[in-house]
Amino acid sequence: MGRLVVRILLWFVPCVAAWYWLAPAADGLVASGARVLANLVVKDVVREVEVASGLVTFVTAMSVKGQAGVLTVDANPRLFTYGFALFAAIVLGARARSAWWSLPLGALVVSLVAMWGVAFDLLGHLVRSAPEALHARGVTQGTVNFIALGYQLGSLVLPAVVPAVVAVAVAWKEIAPPASDAVTPASTSVTPAQAGAQAGFPPSRE
User: Fold this and answer.
1) pLDDT tens digits for 42-53?
2) Using CA atoms in the order 193, 194, 197, 199, what is the torsion angle rounded to 10 degrees?
3) Residue 204 — φ and ψ, nearest 5°?
4) Contact criterion met (CB below 8 Å) for 129 and 64
5) Are 77 and 56 in contact (CB under 8 A)?
6) Within its chain, how far is the Cα of 104 from the centroid?
7) Mean pLDDT, to the nearest integer, of 133-151?
8) What's the rounded Cα separation, in Å, for the pair 62 and 84?
9) In contact, 14 and 88? CB cutoff 8 Å
10) How far, in Å, CA of 142 to CA of 148, rounded?
11) Do residues 95 and 10 lie in contact, with contact meaning Cβ atoms separated by under 8 Å?
């Protein structure tokens, strides 16, 4: 197990570099998915999405009292996609036979997690900055509580936990400790006198 941990740590640094280099390619996909999810939770809350310089800007259909124009919210997808580096490091460090084909699977899983995180980051911002506007759009207290839960999961739990769990599942054959060898009890010979004594009979006198 110690060697496995060392290999994962050695892989982690290059995997972080690869993630940082490849992350911008997923920004558009994450932004589109987050827009769909946000509009499912609060109907038609997002009008447009812009992606530039590593940031996603959501143009909402809401306005804040005392401010001109509609409300825009910026989100950073990389706050939610770093789990890919962890996924890749675990799979490659474990020397899983399925390592190479499982990397696209990890990218898909991380993208879905990032969609959730970005969407609820946006919705959480709206709850804090424009609660009256949300109420005017028919958002109930139950929906607000769901947004709060989704925000906590999306920012604190899912980005790290889900990639790690999926990586362990993919590489489980290589990570799981080997089964211990079965121990065969030593056979013992019992004399007739001993057998009788064990059964409760008195020893014979010869």
Assistant:
1) 999 999 999 998
2) -110
3) -75, 145
4) yes
5) yes
6) 15
7) 94
8) 34
9) no
10) 10
11) no
Q: Are 95 and 7 spatial neighbours (Cβ–Cβ below 8 Å)?
A: yes
Residue 166 in this model has a pLDDT that exceeds 50: yes
Name the phi and psi angles at 55, rounded to 5: -120, 145
**Strands annotated E in 41-95:** 46-52, 55-60, 72-75
- Decide: 134 and 122 in contact? Cβ < 8 Å: no
Cα distance from N-terminal residue to C-terminal residue, the chain: 62
pTM for the whole structure: 0.81
| Residue predicted with more confidence, 177 or 148 | 148
What Rg, from alpha-carbon coordinates, does the chain have? Answer: 29
Amino acid found at 45? V
Asked if residue 158 lies in contact with residue 150, where contact means CB atoms within 8 angstroms, the answer is: no
pLDDT of residue 183: 47
3-state SS, residue 186: coil
User: Nearest-CA neighbor of 130 among 40, 203, 22, 58?
Assistant: 58
Cβ distance 96 to 172 under 8 Å?
Answer: no
Q: Which two tokens stand for residue 68?
A: 């001109």
Q: Could you tell me where the beta strands, DSSP code E, fall in 61-169?
A: 72-75
Using the structure block, give the residue that is written with the tokens 């009292």: 65
Q: CA-to-CA distance for 83 and 163, rounded, in angstroms?
A: 6
Please state, in angstroms and rounded to a whole number, the distance separating the CA atoms of residues 33 and 155. Answer: 16
